[in-house]
Amino acid sequence: MPDPWMPGLRHDPGRSAGYNAGRNRMWMAVDHDTGGNNSYEICKWGRQGYNAGLCQVLFPKQGVPWQFCEIDALCYHAGSAQYGDYNPFGPGFEVERLQGEPLSDDQATWIGRVFAWCESEWRLPNIHYWGPQFGWWQANFHGHVNHRDIHPNPDGLSPAEWAQSAGAAGGGQEPTPIKKRGNPKMWCAAITDLKWVDVYYNGVMVEGFTNDGPFGIGDKLKRYLDAGAGMTIYKNEAEYSPVRARLAKSVS
Questions:
Q1: How much is the pLDDT for 248?
Q2: Helix 159-168 vs helix 105-122: angle between axes, to the nearest 10 degrees?
Q3: Which stretches does DSSP call E strand in 38-195?
Q4: Which residue range(s) make up the domain with 19?
Q5: How far is C-alpha 53 from the chain's CA centre?
Q6: Which of 143, 160, 174, 212 could form a disulfide with 127 if both were Cys (CB 3.0 to 4.6 A apart)?
Q7: What is the pLDDT of residue 178?
Q8: H-helix or E-strand containing 78?
Q9: Are 159 and 194 contained in the same domain?
Q10: Is residue 1 part of a domain?
Q11: Residues linked to residue 33 through DSSP beta bridges, in sequence order
């Protein structure tokens, strides 16, 4: 099993450490804003009377993030009897900021690093859902979702912030496509802002679609990922264009 404590973070065991409340599946991570300026104690120890902390990792505005428990330990960050209990699905990541505040440079850098580590060590895909809000108890995305995707709270990362974090952490290179159950011959390619996606089968482009509205890509992309497609995200169009040209030449 991979090391559940990410190297380089501030390891500060809280109430969920030692799997005090159990384990999560490392399937679907939920990205949050704290809505405050000093959320250390509640993130580490959780709410009074509960046996788990509020999140696995807290990203302060300045400095290295805190990791309060094993990344696959259970925290109480996204559970509701009305909207669904997603705590067992995966980790919760809290960004220390008020609603509407931009990411700090440190937050953008460390978000990118932590999410890349979760993918490389734990096979939690470093991709984000950008579709409409899920119905109650219906979320099951393999990757990252925002808290607002599963709950009325408006917090989470924007597509621009997702791209900012990938770039700040040195991401955007050509990674090995994520392997998922299903058809191993099919994969999707996109740039980090997800303005468009190309879908390939056996190296041949079979569909390309653009983001014509706020939710124009999410449902289509989810359809392919649910069918088992891999995914490669490129930093920008210039980085992807040579790949696209090479594939087109190979089937011409």
A1: 60
A2: 80
A3: 57-59, 66-67, 79-80, 84-85, 92-95, 143-146, 186-191
A4: 10-168
A5: 20
A6: 143
A7: 36
A8: none
A9: no
A10: no
A11: 95
- Please list the rounded mean pLDDT of every run of 10 residues in the chain (252 residues): 95 98 97 96 95 97 97 96 93 95 94 94 90 90 94 92 78 37 62 68 69 54 69 72 68 42
Q: Identify the pLDDT of residue 132.
A: 87
CATH code of 25's domain: 3.40.80.10
H helix intervals, 129-232: 159-168, 218-226
Same domain, 140 and 237: no
Residues 65 and 101 in one domain: yes
Q: Which two tokens stand for residue 98?
A: 């008020």
Q: Note the Cα 48 to chain centre separation in Å.
A: 28
Residue ending a domain, choose from 168, 198, 225: 168
The amino acid occupying position 222 is K
Question: Which helix (H) or strand (E) element contains residue 231?
Answer: strand 230-234
Cβ partners under 8 Å of residue 141, min gap 6:
28, 129, 149, 222, 225
Residue type, 43: C
**Helices marked H in the chain — which ranges?**
40-45, 105-122, 159-168, 218-226, 237-250
**Rounded CA gap, 46 and 211, in Å?**
38
Q: Which of 118, 140, 168 is the last residue of a domain?
A: 168
Measure the CA–CA gap between 131 and 121, rounded to whole angstroms. Answer: 27
